[in-house]
Predict the 3D structure of the following.
Amino acid sequence: MAGKTTRATKALDRVGADYRLHRYQVSQVVGEGYGVAVAEAIGMSGSRVFKTLVAEVDDQPVAAVLPVDRRLSTKKLARAVGGKSCSLVAPAAAERLTGYVTGGISPFGQRMNLRVILDNSASGMETIAVSGGQRGIQLELAPEVLLAVTGGTLAAIADD
C-alpha cells in the first residue's frame, strides 16, 4: 500500500489485510457534524463511514465502531459486552488509551488494544470506512477484515 503510513495502516499491512486509503480535507467542523463531513469528503454515505468511540463498560475500556450518522446506545453496548453500566470516556482519556487524536481514532493499531464492537449495520456491506489513525485519512475495507484483524464482535450498538 503506497501512501501515508500510520500505526493503523502498519497494523493492517502486517497481516496482509486488503484496504483502500482515502485522503480527505474538511473544514473545521466540530462535534457530530465532523463524521458526516468526512463521509461527504470521501464520497460515501454516512451509513458506510464508521466512527470509533471509546467507552467504559463496568470500568473496562471498549472501542465502539458505528456509522457516523448514528448515535451510540450505551445500554446496547453494555449488553453487547455482558456489562451493566456504560459511559463514553472523556476525549483526553480516549486519546491516552488509543494513542490517537480525537477525530482520528482508529480501531487498528491502538496503544492499548481495546475490545472492538462493530455495529451490526455493517453486516452485509461490501466495504465500510474507518479512521486511518489521523484526521485526513480513512481506510475502506470489508467489515469482515475489521473483525478479523481486531478480534472484534458484531452487535447492535447504535440507537434505532
In short: The radius of gyration is 14 Å. The first strand starts at residue 20 and ends at 23.
